[in-house]
Amino acid sequence: MVAMMQADGLESSRILMAGELGRLFLTGYSVAIPERSVGMAVAADARPEQLTSFRDVVRNCHAARNNENFGRLLQPSDLLAK
Predict the structure, then answer these.
(1) Residue 64 and residue 9: Cα distance in Å, rounded?
(2) How many whole angstroms from its chain centre is CA 39?
């Protein structure tokens, strides 16, 4: 699981780096944008307790910010133009 919160202004847009994330998560991954300055990714084969923890962090971060960003997990293909 990774969180992307760098101070260089790219923050959550790093979830668009599919090549790099694919090399890090060889079995696949899901992403989340719980608030504007945070992008997160979790391995597709994460243990159930890890996935629950990840979802809780996403949900709590999203709720605390009360904004219109995603409070749910997305598949990398959800980020592609259709």
Answers:
(1) 21
(2) 5
Give pLDDT tens digits along the chain (82 positions): 777 766 766 667 777 788 888 999 999 998 888 877 788 889 999 999 999 998 998 888 766 665 555 667 777 887 776 6
Alpha-carbon gap, residue 70 to 62, rounded angstroms? 7
In DSSP notation, the chain reads -EEE--TTTTGGGGGG-HHHHHHH-TT-EEEEEEETTEEEEEETT--HHHHHHHHHHHHHHHHHHTSSS--S-B-GGGGS--
User: Where exactly are the structural domains of the chain?
Assistant: 2-77
pTM: 0.72
Q: Could you tell me if 19 and 43 are in contact, meaning their C-beta atoms sit under 8 angstroms apart?
A: no
